[in-house]
# Entry
Amino acid sequence: MADTFNIATYLTERHVLGGYADRTAVVTRRSTLTYRDLTEQVRRAAAGLRALGLRPEERVAFVTPDCPEMLTGVLATWYAGAVALPMSTMHLGGELARLLRDSRARVLVASGAFAESVRQAVADAPDLTVLVTVGEPFAPPPTADLPTVAWEDLLTSGAAAEDRGPDATTEESPALWLYTSGTTGTPKAVMHPHATMRHLVEGFGHHILGIRPDDRCYSVSKMFFTYGLANSCYLPLAAGAATVLDPDPPTPRSIAARLIADRPTLFFAVPTVYASLLRAEDVPDDAFASVRVAVSAGEMLPARLHTGFRERFGVDLVDGLGSTEALQIFLSNRPGHTRPGSSGVPIPGYDIRLVTEDGIDAGLGEPGVLWVSGPTMATGYWCRSRATRAVFRGEWLVTGDMYTRDEDGYYHCLGRSGDMIKSGGIWVSPAEVEARLEEHPSVAQAAVVAVPDADGLELTVACVVPAPGQEIDQDALIAFCRAGLAAFKRPRRVLRFDRLPTTATGKIQRAALRTTVAELLETRGPVALVARS
# Structure
């Protein structure tokens, strides 16, 4: 029988038993938690969840900002042997409901800040058995008939209940589900066992970050995002370091304030955040004085942005490539050895292949689809056998990213082999946005593509053909998308076309469309352009 291993005890109790109970674990604007405090709250929350009837391997969904309650709740879920399921706080009610139904989550931990979306979602999620509220209490709609427990009452009931200790999980026991659109455009849950989080720490945390107990980790990317969860949870906690949690939406000014007040040594963000910081005149040039490593991931980091950031702030950004399916970063530059415009080299423990359309390994400088194998690969997608077979090929994960490798072993991104778009480091399905646009009475046909903006980052553009007798209003269409989709999925520009380029079989020629869009945005001359700066 396999030996027991529980990632929650690895991240918390291990430090208390090792004599580091008084070391700071969590930093917020209002308070701090030591490893003793965090361990005790995890035990109480786990006992409270068990008292609510939660059983091992059932799902606990989270719709909360980055706060101690979310961190504690995720750890408590693992401690109890259940599966943690962080969900995007940007989802609207209908989107949340679909994911709750798909995952068959039994418990939802939700913040009052997102009460409107949550109330709508729980009314259409029949498998939920209880709602745990964080912050301002709120009740589900009467039609949901769902018991509600405040977070403080959950901890109180846990303190009174018997502490049964951590569940007897193993390295292969399910621990974490994260929804991603990946290469297919259909949201699906990526399943990770307890062991992959420890392997990530031993790989990226050790070889790239060199993370130490005296480090402070500040992640602009939130914990519902694969990248952010690693940065704020298992990377710092595994090392006995501190995590800096910020519940508010990030702005250049708020990020600078946290950098100055909390003096983190490790900083994590996506390229769009680095671009906004570089453009912000009110961010002091010495804001990053405490940071020894700044990591960029989520989407390709343009060389121009990398160089500009280093020149202004004195920080050499460490760019890397990861995925939800691989848990986090597996290709990375090294601190002090970065090559702007590249994704770096494989982290020890990972193998990389570039596979051509002919199914053979690409030569130096030859494009190929990037395949990766390593210790942090997911076990597959929940109830998506066809997608699992397409993406997971034995030990290999087919990422769908097109890359080349240079003679020094550095990998360079060419874009996606498919048509998926990354907006702010989060996957966006063009088909989903197109379907929303075509619901508007002024739109007869829509195609959504991405082109580089002035910073070299992906700009989502909607190309629309008007319905007969209708005019196209960019602001109205963007607002319409925001009303039915998460805000990050909305197009940033709208272009009017008399017709869209298609193949002989009627499929939209997206490559040709991207070229046309890039030219229109550059010249701003054609009548077809509706977008206004």
In short: Residues 525-533 have pLDDT under 50 and may be disordered. The first strand starts at residue 24 and ends at 27.
